[in-house]
Amino acid sequence: MPTTKWILPEGIEDILPEQAYWLEMKRREVIDTFISFGYGLVIPPLLEYTDSLTQDISEDLDLQTFKLVDQDTGKQLGLRADITSQISRIYSTFNENNINRYCYFDHVARAKNDNTKNSRVPIQAGAELIGSSEIENDAELVILMIDVLKKFTNKKIFLDLGHVGILKKLISSANLEKYQEKEIKNLIRSKSSSEIKQFLHNQNIDESLKECLKNFPKMHGSINDIEKYLNQLKIFDDRIEKDIRYMIYLSEFIKNSHNNININFDFCEIKGFDYENDIIFSAYIENDSQEVAIGGKYDLNSDGVTGIGFSIDVRYLLKNQFLNKTKYKLVNKSGKWFTEDNNE
Fold first, then answer.
1. Are 90 and 130 in contact (CB under 8 A)?
2. Nearest 5°: phi and psi at 49?
3. What is the C-alpha to C-alpha distance for residues 205 and 213, in angstroms, rounded to an integer?
4. Which site in 21, 117, 198, 275 is 20 to 30 Å from 329, CA atoms measured?
5. Which 3-state string (H, E, C) describes the chain?
6. Could you read off the pLDDT of 215-231 as tens digits, one per residue?
7. What does the pLDDT look like over 276-302, one tens digit per residue?
8. In sequence order, what are the residues at sequence separation of 6 or more whose Cβ sits closer than 8 angstroms to the Cβ of residue 296?
9. Contact 250, 134 (CB under 8 A)
């Protein structure tokens, strides 16, 4: 019987036995770690109604969601691009406590891929802590992310802390149109000082605010590098000083648990989906410029309930070999797969 060599779409790939075995071993370790922190495992459906997936809170999330029609009801369904929105639904539907903790280890699907190194069907390991705004709980979530990341790799980890709320407060002072806000966010994300300057030149914005936004690409590094801009920032909104102090206290909590990671502050750090509006963070691995984990804080609903969560891109770690060994490995011998001691 003739065989056909099929080509998969770009950004979509198989996971073959050796890597699949490693992945399953790590999955067990990671879920045990989540549970040891008090996080309950959930497995939301891959497919559900689009309005509950996107919740009208994120344009980015809506663009990344594959959409199709339910043949039974005629309603629009979506393939999840993110699990956080599903956990928000679970919390709102089934929660019996004000504070709750959930974790997951599963696939998502992305309609678009702006980075050829990334998969369009990522495997995400993540957690969400909902119902608390205490700094101890925010720190718990970030510490858990680093603990889990260390299950995957023994390379040095770098953590970037940002705060979306600071940029949002500044932009709200500028009274820009929505499309202009989106453009300035993209320019600040790229840290392109010349393009930011060119964009602001044609805007009817207070000159001191223009100067502050021009300086945004410089606002990264150690806390000393950040604090020198504090007076300039708080002129426009005195809540910004509180935001920066919160970031500093959060970093101190994290260092108490993980003193072997590098922590930097970066106000241009606005990755992830646009429903986040407070503390955000990204983790990187030594000698690689691509973030392997992202997270942040968000409003769950209009009643003031907040959540904080993270997701680790497990498929990226798998693809790029940032891997710790498992106790056993899987090998093929004459068409049969066997486990062998990985130390041999």
1. no
2. -60, 140
3. 11
4. 117
5. CCCCCCCCCCCCCCCCHHHHHHHHHHHHHHHHHHHHCCCEECCCCCEEEHHHHHCCCCHHHHHHCEEEECCCCCCEEEECCCCHHHHHHHHHHHCCCCCEEEEEEEECCCCCCCCCCCCCCCEEEEEEEECCCCHHHHHHHHHHHHHHHHHHCCCCEEEEEEEHHHHHHHHHHHCCCHHHHHHHHHHHHHCCHHHHHHHHHCCCCCHHHHHHHHCHHHCEECHHHHHCCHHHHHCCCCHHHHHHHHHHHHHHHHHHHCCCCEEEEECCCCCCCCCEEEEEEEEEECCCCCCCEEEEEEECCCCCCEEEEEEEEHHHHHHCCCCCCCCEEEEEECCEEEEEECCC
6. 887 888 887 777 777 88
7. 678 999 999 998 988 999 999 988 876
8. 164, 272, 276, 278, 279, 280, 281, 308, 309, 310
9. no
Helix orientation angle between 193-201 and 178-190, rounded to the nearest 10 degrees: 160
pLDDT at 167: 82
Tokens in use for 275?
A: 């429903």
Compute how many other C-beta atoms are within 10 angstroms of the C-beta atom of residue 12: 12
Using alpha carbons, select from 224, 251, 243 the residue that is nearest to residue 159: 251
Decide if 210 contacts 197 (C-beta within 8 A): no
Residue 192 has which token pair?
Answer: 């392109």
- Pairing label, strands 100-107, 40-41: parallel
Report how far apart, in Å, the C-alpha atoms of 87 and of each of 44, 121, 188, 288, 327 are.
8, 19, 30, 30, 33
Query: Which amino acid is residue 228, in one-letter code?
Result: K
CA-to-CA distance for 278 and 111, rounded, in angstroms? 26
Query: CATH assignment of 17-155+287-341, given 3.20.20.300, 3.30.930.10, 3.10.560.10, 3.40.50.2000?
Result: 3.30.930.10
2 pLDDT higher than 70: no
